[in-house]
Specification:
Largest sheet: 5 strands, mixed
Radius of gyration: 26 Å
Distance between the termini: 58 Å
Mean pLDDT: 87
Shape: globular
Number of strands: 7
Strand content: 5-15%
Order of helices and strands: EEEHEHEHHHHHHHHEEHHH
Number of helices: 13
Structural class: alpha/beta
Strand order of the largest sheet: 3-2-1-4-5
Length: 399
Amino acid sequence: MGKYIITGCDLSDRSMMLQWACDAEAPRKRAFANDESGRARMMEFLRGRAKAAGGATIVFAYEAGPHGFGLHDAATDQGIVCHVLAPSKMARSPKARRTKTDEKDALAIFETLRGHLLAGNALPSVWVPDPQTREDREVVRARLDAGAKQRRVQTQIRMLLKRSETRAPQGAGKAWSAKHRAWLRGLSAPSSALGPGARTALGSLLRQFDWLEGECAALDRAVADLARQERWRAQAEALDAEKGVGLLTAMIFLTELGDVRRFSNRRQLASYLGLVPSSDETGERADCKGHITRHGSPRLRWALCQAAWTRVRTDPRERAAYERLVAKRPKKKKIAIVARMRCLGIGLWHCAVAAAPGTSVAAPLPSPRWGEAPVGAAGASAEGESPAPPRGERRRRAV
């Protein structure tokens, strides 16, 4: 077995706390500044330790967080094996969570990495997207953030009107229609019946809403330009063709997943989406399931939820499938929409795999017990069957 310089790093805004050792030696700590010169000194220090150990392999690990993957890229460029670990999967006792320091965090990362290298323990590492995928994510996430801010402003306006006991007249039209917005602007005028404070606040909120509307339109164009790029075009078109799935939802799905072929089956995908039930089982209690785990990207679950509700409202077959699930548990309707979200996510994944650039084989099929071929897979029927939802329920995709 070759030698390793094993390094666990706790990364913060200003510093990098290292715990390092050669193989099974006792760990030693070393701190560096978290800037360009500090990183260069750290790389030089680790290379020196590897040379002193007779050409040992440097293996480095830190936890994923707000600092992104820049340190991973810098270490990889220097020939260092770097792992980015998932904080949610790091085992920590209640005592360790109460006595948190940089040194202890670095030591926990170090011990996890050493257990993987020397004992073969599982390493809770995350998938590191390529730089272009990270850049594309920024565009899509900016559009989601602008939309969330716009909805927040709408809520603030409704609450302001409620506090002022102001109700829209019958001729004001539907909420946020052109007539309704003209009525709101009239309320912010000096001649309206609102008090001066409420008028000022309403005028400010309407200006924010108009600006955010323009930002959403500009970012929609940026997302459309992104979808036309060669690396996304075929997949985006395939997902956009699905009922209830627009271009924005398609790009959220693709950019958050990155390489869709990194999932080998639908169970891995559902686990990544956080749409699988949690479990609390012992030898005496088997099959004790709880709420969904909510692991993975909340943006992706939000997009799947919106698309699933759209399909339930507009697709008779999807509506019937949803109602069958509701009939089983009338008091727990959320379970039904979560099941449709999971089914939709798996179907979109099959579509994306089949349309991925360089794909020369058919998309992976579900296990035989589901009895259906996925959307876009070889062997699908002429009407286009989609993957069967949980518990054996059958569903056909609407044209």
